[in-house]
TrEMBL record:
Residues that span the membrane, as ranges: 102-128, 149-179, 191-208
InterPro entries linked to this entry: Anoctamin, Anoctamin_TM
Main localization, broad class: membrane
Membrane topology: Multi-pass membrane protein
Record's protein name: Anoctamin transmembrane domain-containing protein
PANTHER family xrefs: ANOCTAMIN
Subcellular compartments: Membrane
GO MF annotations in UniProt: chloride channel activity
Pfam families (UniProt xref): Anoctamin
One Gene Ontology term, aspect cellular component: membrane
Highest taxon in the source lineage: Eukaryota
Keywords: Membrane, Transmembrane, Transmembrane helix
Lineage of source species: Eukaryota, Viridiplantae, Streptophyta, Embryophyta, Tracheophyta
Domain Anoctamin transmembrane span(s) in chain numbering: 2-225
Gene source species: Kalanchoe fedtschenkoi (Lavender scallops)
Length: 256
């Protein structure tokens, strides 16, 4: 929440929606562009530095003074920086940074949607661009990450759900600020309607979370079907191995 302190100041205390829009534009456009440039240039600079050190080491220890090239894919892959850091080796973790970037962006476009509705368009364009830049980064600039099986995104799911609830509250408060220009803060019909709308939206949100399943029925059916097929294949393979062992033992007994 420390990232949003300055935005909350302009939104709730200062009540300057024009400045709030300028801050959101700066965060969503300029900051995202700079972060994408840094995110893609730093791995390349790290790779270039490691390659320069390796070339210098080879020139120092090899007698051949010709041009040194890394033709092996393993050598090139070894010099690239890792995407997901190992504990105790590096302080940065690309997966954590990507999730954090999405969470911060999601919070800004959701919690201040009524003040700057165009933020969704900027975020969409940024995410479409970042899909391609992240693909380039993972395929070319970084080591191939080791796949790790996971059922969900873990604690990040709770963070996104918390941001959804906070966005309902903050947008309703921003509507109150727009409505109560003179600062009277009386319970008038407009303010009462905003409070009712807040409770209705919260009820809809928790209703969707409660009654809409996280896994569709066709996904569950296909998953069970694949699990059954895998179990059948393992059972057939086990029966074949057992029958093969029996035949082998019978041949040995006949030879004896």
């Amino acid at each position: 929440m420390q990232t949003y302190i300055g935005i909350f100041y302009h939104a709730l205390l200062h009540r300057n929606l024009k400045t709030l829009r300028q801050v959101l534009i700066q965060r969503l456009i300029l900051s995202e562009v700079l972060e994408n440039l840094v995110e893609n240039s730093v791995p390349y600079l790290k790779y270039s530095y490691k390659k320069y050190k390796a070339v210098s080491y080879k020139r120092k220890h090899d007698k051949d003074s010709g041009k040194i090239r890394f033709t092996s894919r393993v050598e090139k892959e070894y010099l690239k920086p890792a995407y997901a850091a190992s504990i105790g080796k590096e302080l940065e973790d690309g997966l954590f940074d990507d999730f954090l970037e999405l969470a911060l962006q999601f919070g800004m476009i959701m919690m201040f949607a009524c003040a700057f509705p165009l933020a969704f368009t900027f975020s969409l364009l940024n995410n479409v661009t970042e899909i391609r830049t992240d693909a380039l980064k993972l395929l070319v600039m970084l080591k191939r990450p080791i796949p790790r099986a996971a059922a969900t995104i873990g604690a990040w799911l709770n963070i996104f759900q918390f941001l959804i609830v906070m966005s309902i509250c903050t947008n309703c408060v921003l509507l109150v600020c727009l409505y109560d220009v003179e600062g009277k803060w009386r319970v008038e019909p407009g303010l009462a309607a905003i409070l009712v709308m807040e409770h209705v939206l919260l009820l809809i949100k928790f209703g969707f979370s409660r009654f809409v399943p996280e896994e569709p029925a066709w996904v569950r059916a296909n998953r069970l079907k694949n699990a059954t097929q895998a179990q059948d294949m393992c059972s057939k393979q086990l029966l074949r191995s057992i029958s093969g062992e029996k035949r082998f033992l019978s041949v040995i007994k006949k030879m004896e």
